[in-house]
Amino acid sequence: MVESNQTGGLWPQLYTPFRHLGSRIAEWLSPASDASSDDDAYRISVELPGVSESDIALTTEGGVLTVSGEKTATREDKGETWYFTERQYGAFRRSFRLPGDADEDRIEAHMKDGVLDITVPRKAPDAGGGRKIEVKKG
Fold first, then answer.
1. pLDDT at site 25
2. Contact by Cβ (8 Å): 31, 44
3. Residue 85 lies in a domain
4. Is residue 43 in some structural domain?
5. In whole angstroms, what is the distance from residue 37 CA to residue 43 CA?
6. Measured between alpha carbons, how far is 55 from 49 in angstroms, rounded to an integer?
7. Within a domain: residue 127?
């Protein structure tokens, strides 16, 4: 029998391979994406093959942009025998923390050929460098 004070106990040893399983499954089910930026905007491309525009929700809250939705299976094959399938179906969710100069009010998204392209414009920098506060007498 394994003593808990020498090796940390038997349960932690059995639990170790499964410790990060939830996050690995979430990463596997999350759609692949690319992010880039230039002087005018941030750009995010998310691969969503087989997902229609109406099944995608794009939201912002607290400086986080979230893409979520569901890929549904609508397949009817008569007379075929399937040996394997590698296509994925089900709900997905992917979140991106936006930089401080992101203009959440002007975000645009376009879907083409199974790729969702999101453009997040940058806010114009403050030209005034602040505001002057009047000092009153008394």
1. 44
2. no
3. yes
4. yes
5. 6
6. 12
7. no
Identify the band that residue 27 occupies on the pLDDT scale cut at 50, 70 and 90.
Answer: very low
When comparing pLDDT for 82 and 54, which is higher? 54
Rounded Cα–Cα distance for residues 116 and 33 (Å): 9
- 44 CB neighbour count, 10 Å cutoff: 21
> For residue 125, what are its two tokens?
């920098």
Q: What CATH number is given to the structural domain containing 68? A: 2.60.40.790
Indicate whether 13 pLDDT > 80. Answer: no
Tokens matching residue 69? 């939705």
User: How many CB atoms sit inside 10 A of residue 131's CB?
Assistant: 6
**The two structure tokens encoding residue 50:** 């087989």
Give the residue from 74, 57, 75 showing the smallest Cα distance to 66: 57
Residue 46 CA, distance from chain mean position: 8
Is pLDDT of 107 > 60? yes
Give SS3 for 6. Answer: helix
Going across the sheet that includes 41-47, the strands are 33-37, 41-47, 115-121, 108-112
Print the SS3 string covering 17-57.
HHCCHHHHHHHHHCCCEEEEECCCEEEEEEECCCCCHHHEE
The chain-wide mean pLDDT, for the chain, equals: 78
